[in-house]
Design a protein that fits this description.
It is globular and about 40 Å long. It is built from eight helices and eight strands; from the N terminus they run E-H-E-H-E-E-H-E-H-E-H-E-H-E-H-H. The chain has an eight-stranded parallel barrel with strand order 1-2-3-4-5-6-7-8, surrounded by five helices. The chain is of the alpha/beta class and 208 residues long. The longest helix has 17 residues, at 48-64. Helix 1 runs parallel beside helix 8 (195-206) and helix 6 (170-176) runs parallel beside helix 8. 39% of the residues lie in helices and 18% in strands.
Length: 208
């Protein structure tokens, strides 16, 4: 995945793995609604069996559409499940171990929360992108949010692709568009009545 297009690209976070079978058609329609750069399999606290079944389902949907598929937090499952990479949250040691395990060809992304320092550290280790968030209220009791100045600084000073995620409104998407490479959407889609149309709405805001 690359962040070199004129407008930010869309990055979709799936519903929890245990819900994916029931939401297969909704997810498929959403992936067809707009051009998607990457999908992240949301594993949450699911069982190994749920994760495996979900990975099989999403892998089929993504690969036929030429969309990269990464898994949340389980680098050891990337190769067994035939995925393209992993998205990590945590210590630098975890990122180093994942890169060593998966090699240079796999996608390794890192979530740095609100921390510029953690983002830069992840970049030095060799991740393919850094995500910052939340941007706004996710409904999970967030207290602190990313200062938009961080994205402005990053876009000027760092070449590594950057993702904004977490509680992103349509207004946020339009404001962030000049400063980010990817916009990650998950709950913003699945809590709407029409996820495919919602994805189109966000894509339009990114293109303004």
């Amino acid at each position: 995945m690359s962040g070199t297009t004129e407008h930010p690209q869309l990055y979709v976070i799936t519903p929890p793995a245990s819900k994916l079978v029931a939401m297969r058609d909704v997810l498929a329609a959403s992936l067809d609604a707009s051009e998607i750069a990457c999908v992240r399999l949301n594993t949450g606290a699911e069982t190994a069996d749920d994760i495996s079944k979900a990975a099989d389902l999403v892998r089929e949907l993504c690969h036929v559409r030429d969309i990269a598929l990464v898994i949340d937090g389980h680098p050891g499952l990337v190769e067994p499940l035939g995925l393209d990479g992993v998205h990590l949250s945590g210590a630098a040691k975890t990122i180093r171990e994942a890169r060593k395990l998966l090699g240079s060809e796999a996608v390794v992304g890192a979530h740095a929360g609100l921390s510029k320092h953690d983002g830069l550290t992840a970049g030095e280790i060799g991740v393919d992108y850094v995500a910052f968030g939340p941007i706004g209220d996710t409904g999970l009791g967030d207290i602190d949010f990313v200062d938009s100045d961080l994205f402005a600084w990053w876009s000027l000073m760092v070449e590594l692709p950057v993702i904004a995620e977490g509680g992103i409104t349509l207004k946020d998407a339009a404001l962030l568009a000049p400063q980010i490479d990817f916009l990650a959407l998950g709950a913003e889609l699945w809590r709407s009545d029409d996820p495919a149309q919602t994805l189109k709405d966000y894509a339009e805001r990114l293109a303004i």
